[in-house]
Amino acid sequence: MAGQKMLKFTKVERDMPEKRPPNLRKEDFGEIYAEYARDKAAEQASRCSQCGVPYCQTHCPLHNNIPDWLRLTAEGRLEEAYEISQATNTFPEICGRICPQDRLCEGNCVIEQSGHGTVTIGSVEKYITDTAFEEGWVKPIRPHAERSESVGIIGAGPGGLAAADMLRRQGVQVTVYDRYDRGGGLLTYGIPGFKLEKDIVMQRMAQLEDGGVQFVLNCNVGEDLSFDAIRGKHDAVLIATGVYKTRDLPDSGADGIVDAIDFLTASNRKSFGDDVPEFDSGELNAEGKRIVVIGGGDTAMDCVRTAVRQGAESVKCLYRRDRANMPGSQREVQNAEEEGVEFVWLSAPNGFEGDAVTGVKVQKMRLGAPDATGRQAPELIEGSDYVEGADIVIKALGFEPEDLPKLWGVDGLEVTRWGTVKADFNTGATNLEGVYAAGDIVRGASLVVWAIRDGRDAATAMLEYLGQAADVAAE
Predict the structure, then answer these.
(1) Cβ burial, residue 386 (10 Å; 0-12/13-18/19+)
(2) Which parts of 260-370 are beta strand (E)?
(3) The whole model's pTM is what?
């Protein structure tokens, strides 16, 4: 019977959830994709070929049991599908919304490779967990027994929260420290609502708080509380700060040249109803202005699409390579183009005009010989310079780690030559006793799904460490 429900990819066409028209969706910050209806989710899940070697699962950083929960969805067994989904993923409803599935699970789907169009894995994943919340299948965190050991987690982003969830379920006392006034990290303040509505993040925060996780917010480690004080309060510590330092451009100090994280945070704060003077003054508000975003990753796509929704006069994205070589999700590029963003390919900034910026000096590029990674290196085209008019220039060139040993006054914490914390790749253990690290602060700027994976792995290692320490104490 189960087999009859599946392998329908030759009869059923790939069908994404309905996408709101550009003229409507660019008027607000609501998510652009509708939910699947139950029958549609089952129909699309039934396209899965249930292949012997599921490359979707292999290429998922969390190794989610994708074929299993697709089959259960096709059979209408949604609660079981949710149980399978959440067994390997702390936040499936978030990954279903913001993972670049076109580069991970869906991009490696067997039926996609055979020309039938990939299974819509992300949309089904989102549907399963949204339904689970609506139906009350998402159980509260209630440990079977409380433990005396405590863990301090620095950073309330996806890596820290994933670790907090796993540790708390095992009865460990968990306190999360974060510099912001809300938990979630970039999920809350870095990713726009049209990709991830904030109530989705807040419901997980509420679940963790209800489950006994303590949050110490508005806490700058190194200023409000020392790292040594946190170590002294807890049996183990996890560093999960993420990377927030923006890669810079030379001579970019003029008024009107802003960092992507500042621009996105201001917009997200407004969506919460916060008082944001920099937005109200126009400094971080695109309304009526010519916006130029420099960069080609997903953060750049978030910036251009946010600027459109704020009512910019024009929005252009400068990228030094062509569309095929863009690091961001192709799905996001398409969404941005539909919403009126103009991409200026093979273009690089070479300075700025005006004390209060009035334009970007642009150099045209061409792709030359491949570099060591096989990627074609951009080369300047002499004499092709021109000025692109701009009222606000947004730098979306990626993020680098802050100098944590200096920031926190910790001389002994080892870092790599890139400034990331040096930690064991599998366990997250650092050179300091009982101190672990996870997510972007270890691997560099990466995906939310990798942060969740790292947080879960670190939590597993910390539980083993705490168990060993308890055994030693008992002796």
Answers:
(1) exposed
(2) 290-294, 314-318, 342-344, 347-353, 359-370
(3) 0.93
